[in-house]
Amino acid sequence: MTQPADSASPVDADADALRKLLRHQASTVTVVTAPGSPAVGFTATSFTPVSLEPPVVSFCLSLTSSSWPAVSRSRYLGVHLLGRQQQDVARTFATSGIDRFAAPTRWRLGPEGVPLIEDTLAWLLCRAIDRVTVGDHAIVLAEPELLRHTDVGSPLLYHRGGYAGLAEHVEPPTRRAA
Fold this sequence. Notes:
Oligomer: single chain
Number of helices: 3
InterPro entries: Flavin_Rdtase-like_dom, NADH-dep_flavin_reductase, Split_barrel_FMN-bd
Shape: globular
EC number: 1.-.-.-
Distance between the termini: 33 Å
Strand content: 35-45%
Helix content: 10-25%
CATH superfamily: Electron Transport, Fmn-binding Protein, Chain A
Protein name: Flavin reductase family protein
Number of strands: 12
CATH topology: Pnp Oxidase, Chain A
Radius of gyration: 18 Å
Number of domains: 1
GO molecular function: FMN binding; riboflavin reductase (NADPH) activity
Keywords: Oxidoreductase
CATH class: Mainly Beta
């Protein structure tokens, strides 16, 4: 069996090479919020489900992030799945040194004092159950306690250094007969 020819030779998997490779992976764009004075929030593309029984989700953030001190202490967090039209929200929460909750950001105070961003495809109110430090990041594991979602809209994705969305019409998968 012949191996397909690669267009490039293998390179060491250092931080720069890994960063370049990961630009090829499309990721869902989320904003994570935490209560505080002031409240904090940041854009994350690392959100993932971990378990359904019990329900557990995760996201990662840098230990040098200005949001990390609040997230490291918060018992409750909000995770918001952004819609395709919310690129401005994603950019706002990815920008350092600004009040991310100032207008035009639309949000309200939710249960447990967690800021909830309006008009997202979905949000989850989560209770943090563990924080695991790995290298220069922390993996936050959290149990969703409340959630809200809409069945309308397309998710905002991040791919190759920019925002993207799905095609307007995506066929649902068909079920195969057993």
